[in-house]
Amino acid sequence: MPIPDFIAELRQFVGTRLLWLPAVTAVVVNEHERLLLNHRADDGRWSLIGGILEPGEQPADGIVRECFEETGLTVEPESLALVDVSPVIEYPSGDRCHYLDLVFRCKPVGGDAHVHDDESLAVEWFPLSGLPEIDEYTRRRIDSALADEVATVYQRRGSR
């Protein structure tokens, strides 16, 4: 799975050391109250759509780009639902990252969801009451985006 060119260049200097990177995640819910998930190629887990922001990229533009790149689906961000910090992610290469994760609730506005790159084994819509096994971090992001509150949730140390 390719990493952005600017990260590959940075890794030449810092090796596999822990990086702090801005990222976006989409909680995409359609008109039938079904949630879009991808079955990741790197770790085989079901996850939300998302990725690393490009230098200077606006977060809302980044989530639209990531959704299209990974699923072929055009989305419209409806709200910024959560600002959070990911757990440390360690990749098979040994690279380690912490992500400042901006989680958007999005609605689909065009296209049909399908595997659109090599990051996913599958892309599927799930009823909210019948999600596959997901980790606690993914669950927190989904719950925040689906809450009836309009305000963005800001995670604070000890509030998990």
Separation, N- and C-terminal Cα atoms? 31 Å
CATH class category label:
Alpha Beta
- Which homologous superfamily in CATH is the superfamily? Nucleoside Triphosphate Pyrophosphohydrolase
Give a short account of the largest sheet. 6 strands, mixed
**Fraction in helix:** 10-25%
Q: Strand-residue fraction?
A: 35-45%
Level-2 CATH architecture = Alpha-Beta Complex
Low-confidence stretches: none
**With helices defined by DSSP (H or I, 4 residues minimum), what is the helix count?**
3
Notes on the structure:
- With 160 residues, this protein is of the alpha+beta class.
- It has a single domain, classed as Nucleoside Triphosphate Pyrophosphohydrolase.
- It is built from 3 helices and 9 strands.
- It has helices spanning 5-14, 59-71, 136-146; strands at 18-28, 34-40, 46-47, 49-52, 74-85, 89-90, 96-110, 120-127, 153-154.
- The strands form 2 sheets. Strands 1, 4, 5, 6, 7 and 9 form a 6-stranded mixed beta sheet that branches. The chain has a 3-stranded antiparallel beta sheet with strand order 3-2-8, with no helix packed on it.
- A hairpin with a 5-residue loop joins β2 and β3 (46-47).
- It is globular, with a radius of gyration of 15 Å.
Topology of this structure?
Layout: H1 5-14, E1 18-28, E2 34-40, E3 46-47, E4 49-52, H2 59-71, E5 74-85, E6 89-90, E7 96-110, E8 120-127, H3 136-146, E9 153-154
Parallel strand pairs: 1-7, 5-9
Antiparallel strand pairs: 1-4, 2-3, 2-8, 5-7, 6-7
In short:
This protein has a single domain, classed as Nucleoside Triphosphate Pyrophosphohydrolase (Alpha-Beta Complex), CATH 3.90.79.10.
